[in-house]
Amino acid sequence: MKRGVKDFESAIKELEAIVKALEEGDLALEQSLELFERGIQLSRFCHTRLEDAERRIELLTSQGERAAAPDNLTATSENGNDT
Amino acid sequence: MTATPGLPFANPHDPRTSAHGIITVTELTSQIRTTLESSFAEVWVEGEITNSRLWKTGHLYFTLRDEHAQLKAVMFRSAVRYLRFTPEDGLRVVARGRVSVYEPKGEYQIVCEHLQPQGIGALQVAFEQVKRKLSDDGLFDPERKRPLPLLPRQIGVVTSLDGAALRDILQVLTRRHQTAHVVIYPTRVQGEGAAAKIAEGIERLSQAEGIDVIIVGRGGGSLEDLWAFNEEPVARAVAAATVPVISAVGHETDTTLSDFVADVRAATPSAAAELAIAGRTDLVDRVDQLTGRLRAAVLDALRRSRTRVLELDRRPGVTSWPARLASHGRHTAELTHAISSALREALASRLSHVHAVRIRLDTREPSRRVEANRTRLVAADERLSATSTHRQQKLRAQVSHLTGRLGALSPLGVLARGYAVCWNDKQTRILRDSATVSVGDNVAIRLARGRLSARVTGKK
User: Fold this and answer.
1) A30 and B167 in contact by Cβ < 8 A?
2) B252-264 mean pLDDT
3) How far apart are alpha carbons B123 and B108 in whole angstroms?
4) pLDDT digit string, tens, across residues A4-61
5) Strand ranges in B136-180 using DSSP code E only, listed in sequence order
6) What's the whole-number mean pLDDT along residues B240-259?
7) Is B217 in contact with B272 (CB distance < 8 Å)?
8) What pLDDT was estimated at residue B398?
9) Do B450 and B368 touch, CB atoms closer than 8 A?
10) DSSP strands (E only) in chain A
11) Measured between beta carbons, which residues in chain A are less than 8 angstroms from residue B402?
12) Among B66, B59, B99, B55, CA closest to B83
C-alpha cells in the first residue's frame, strides 16, 4: 500500500492526477479512499521535501572557504520575525 | 657679416645686430617654449576631440578643435588613469592643462591634466560607453537570460556585510523560507577596488558547490555610490557566472549595467530575495491547494455514497423481503420476524452512521463520533452475521468495508487525539507557519468538537 515516491516533480504530478480523478467523481468509494490515502502520502512527501534543508547562513572567503556567519547576521534574521 | 664673437645674440634693438639677427632654431624654439609655458601654465580650453589615439604606453594623443582652429593635445598615462570615461572622437570636452612645446618637432601642444565632457557628466559618458561595448558583445541579448531555479539548494549573495541590502535579504528569507541556506561573499560595494571585489565574489560563488542562484547588489545611494555596478568587470562577471544572477542595486529607479546583464533584475534587494525563492513559494502554495482539493473531493465521495445507501434501502428487493419470507409458511414466521427486524436494525444503523457522516461533512466538524459509530457498526455487523443469508453477507461485507474505510480517514481522527487545526480568518487556508499571520489577525481554530474564533496576540 505504501508505494514509494520517486521525486518531487513526479510526486506533485501524481497528486494532481489523483485530485483530478477524485474531483471527477466517477470512482467507487473504496477506490476514492485508496486514492485519498495515497494523495495524503504524496502531500506529506512534498511538504517534507520543501522544508528539507536546515537554515544556514555562511560566508565564503576569497580563498573559497566557508565559514559561519557572524552572530549579528543570524541574530538580525531571527529578530526579523517580529516585524 | 659675421657675428661679433662673444655677442652672438646681441640686443635686437641694436641696428647692427638687428641686421644680423641670427639665432639658432634651438634658441628660438627654446624662447618660444619659455614664453608659451609661462603664459599658459594653466588653461581651460573647450573643443571637440578628434584623431584620438591611446598608445601602448598608456599616453593619449588627440586633437582639440573648433570651427576655426585646432590644437594638438596629449594626456599622459598618469592622468588618463583617473578618467572615468574613454575620450572618443566627436566628444566635446573642457580640457585643463598647460601649453608646452615639443622642441624636436617644433610643435606646441596642450598637456592635459583633466578632461570633463561637456553638457553631461563624465559618469553618464562612461555609462553609455560601457553599455555600448557590452551591448556590442551581445551581453544584453534576451536569449542569454536564464530562468531562475525552482528550488535553489543554496543562495549566494554578493554584498556588503553591514549594508541594508543584506539585512533586507535575510529578513525576507526568514519570513518566507525558514530553511534557506545562504552563502554570503562579503565585499565593499563602493569606492576604490569595489568593482574588482564584487566581480571576484560573483565568480567565487558561481563556482562554489551547491549554489544555484546568486544575488548581487546593494542598498540605495548616489550615482557615484552605485558606480561599481556600472563598471565593466562587474558586468562581465555577471555575464560569465555559471548560475543565474539576480541584480538588485539601489532602489526601483536606479538602473545599472549589472542589471542589464543579469538574468533577472530586481527592483530592490528585498525583491531579489523574493524572486530567488518564488519557485519554492509557488510550490508550497500548489501543494497546499492540491491537499485542500484532495480532502474536499474525498468528502464529496463519502456524501455520494450515503445517497447510494439511502437508495438501496428503498429498493423493492429490500422492502419486500419480510413478505417474501412470510410466504414460506407460518413455521417460518418467527424466523421471518427475527430476520426482518435484524435487517431493519442493520439498515437503520447504517443510515444513522451515514447520517453522522453527513452531519460531520456539512458542519465540517471533525468527529469523535467516528469511533462511536464504528462500534455501532461492528455491533450491527455481528447481528447481521448471526442471521446470515446470502443477501445479508453482501450487506455485511459492504458495511465492514465502509467501516474500515472510515477509520482510514485519519486526518479527521487526529483531531480526536487533541490536535487542533488552525485556519486563517476566512478559512481559506490552513496555517502552518506563524509568519503567514500578523499580530492582531483573527484565526479560526477547529477542535475535535466545536470551533474557536481567536486573535493572534503574539508569535514566535
Assistant:
1) no
2) 91
3) 31
4) 777 888 888 999 999 998 888 778 777 888 888 898 888 888 888 887 666 788 999 8
5) 154-159
6) 92
7) yes
8) 61
9) no
10) 56-60, 66-68
11) 29
12) B59
Q: Which residue of B has its CA nearest to A16?
A: B290
| Nearest residue, CB atoms, B287 vs list A47, A64, A69 | A47
**Interface residue B289 vs chain A (CB under 8 A):** no
Which of the given ranges, B33-42, B121-130, B363-372, B375-384, has the highest pLDDT on average? Answer: B33-42
pLDDT at B279: 85
CA distance B219 to B163: 7
What grid cell was written down for B446?
477547529
Summarize pLDDT for B288-314 with one digit per residue, the tens.
Answer: 999 999 888 888 888 877 787 777 777
Rounded CA-CA distance B281/B445 in Å is 24
The whole-angstrom distance between residue B271's C-alpha and the CA centroid of its chain comes to 6
Residue B180 has, within 13 A of its CA and on its CB side, a CA count of 31
ipTM of model over 0.95: no
Q: Considering only CB atoms, which chain A residues are within 8 Å of B401?
A: 30
Q: Residue for cell digits 524572486?
A: B275
* Amino acid at position B387, single letter: T
Provide the grid cell at B79. Answer: 592622468
Domains of chain A are 1-64 (1.10.287.1040)
The DSSP bridge partners found for residue B114 are B96
Q: What is the mean pLDDT of chain B?
A: 81
Task: Give the distance from CA B17 to its chain's centroid.
Answer: 85
Q: Which segments of B1-136 does DSSP mark as H helices, in order?
A: 15-19, 25-39, 77-80, 122-136
Q: Considering only residues A47 and B356, tell me which one the structure prediction assigns the higher pLDDT.
A: A47
How far apart (Å, rounded) are the C-alpha atoms in residues A25 and A36? Answer: 12
- B205 contact partners, CB below 8 Å, separation of at least 6: A60, B156, B157, B158, B183, B185, B211, B214, B241
Place of cell 417460518: B332
CA B386 to chain centre: 68
